[in-house]
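Dear U.,

Please find below the material for section 3 of the report. The protein was modelled together with flavin-adenine dinucleotide; I have listed the sequence and SMILES used, followed by the predicted complex structure.
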Amino acid sequence: MKNVISLNVSSVFRLLGPSWRGNGMVEKYPWWNEEQRKLADEVEEFAKEKAPRAAEATWKKEFPWDIYNEMGGRGWFGTIIPEEYGGLGPRYGVTACCIVAELTTPLGSVCVAFSTTMFGGTHQIAHFGNEEQKERWLPGIAKGKLMGAITLTEPFVGSDAGGVETTARREGDEYVILGKKRFISNTGLADIYMVYARTSDDPKDIASRRHLSAFIVEKGTPGFSVEKINELSGWDGVRNGYLNFDEVRVPAENRLGEEGDGWNIMISGLNFERTLGAAGIVGTFRDLITYAVFHSQR
Ligand SMILES: Cc1cc2nc3c(=O)[nH]c(=O)nc-3n(C[C@H](O)[C@H](O)[C@H](O)COP(=O)(O)OP(=O)(O)OC[C@H]3O[C@@H](n4cnc5c(N)ncnc54)[C@H](O)[C@@H]3O)c2cc1C
């Protein structure tokens, strides 16, 4: 019964099979250019073909790495990565939105993994990382070999993002991170985690939003573990959970920007996240309308 209740829009479309969306019923958005429409067509075809496999993975409670890896081979993770780091070049966010809008309904879990990687590390490294950091992580992301995650929300921190309680204490060439994060998408799957932590309790720093810093923490770092996986309602197959940072030692070279830049980096990432999130919602609603028309004409 629980599984039936948790069926969401994506599941309905999967049950319908590929025919509901095909046959030229759906026009691409008029503001997309030729290149974006071509890419969207490619993603749509791909998503249609892979939908049964994604559904199978959901029921088996596994992540469809085969689909994710194939997307990596097609270069889609490179949409916001400059060419010199293995990306597709100066296309930036709109192209990533095209991909998300096409993936969201038929391949929901893969779509969340894709978009979370884009706003959970990729955007921040591409915009705020130094040369060494870009060379270290961006080529792997572009090939789909590194998955990202964004870790902002905590047990007692949500909408009030500036209230982050996780701390990063400087010790020589390292930071020691202590705290917990919750509701984190790609938990356990991701290779790199974009972590926001408090580096100052000085009221002046807090007032000027200079109290947070941004770090990349890699999977497997001692003290960094998955505490719990959440059961989600309506986000079929999406991996989400709690993370524990128990005195996690991270080299200072994993800090993005300067100490105190965390808030600015966070807001920049959230702006892009909201844009991609909106693309996903637009895609889902377009598909709902398409289905309603299809249903009324049967
Ligand atoms: C499916 C899913 C995936 C997620 N993935 C991630 C992730 O990958 N990384 C991550 O960091 N987080 C993630 N989150 C967490 C998400 O960002 C938080 O849930 C969100 O920031 C809200 O925080 P909260 O749940 O603590 O709610 P609260 O902040 O406790 O808010 C509860 C309610 O109170 C309202 N409210 C809060 N403050 C005010 C105020 N000042 N005035 C009026 N109303 C207010 C809110 O609008 C809301 O309705 C995810 C959440 C979900 C559901």
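For the text of the report, you could mention the following: Confidence is low (pLDDT under 50) at residues 1-7.

Regards,
Y.
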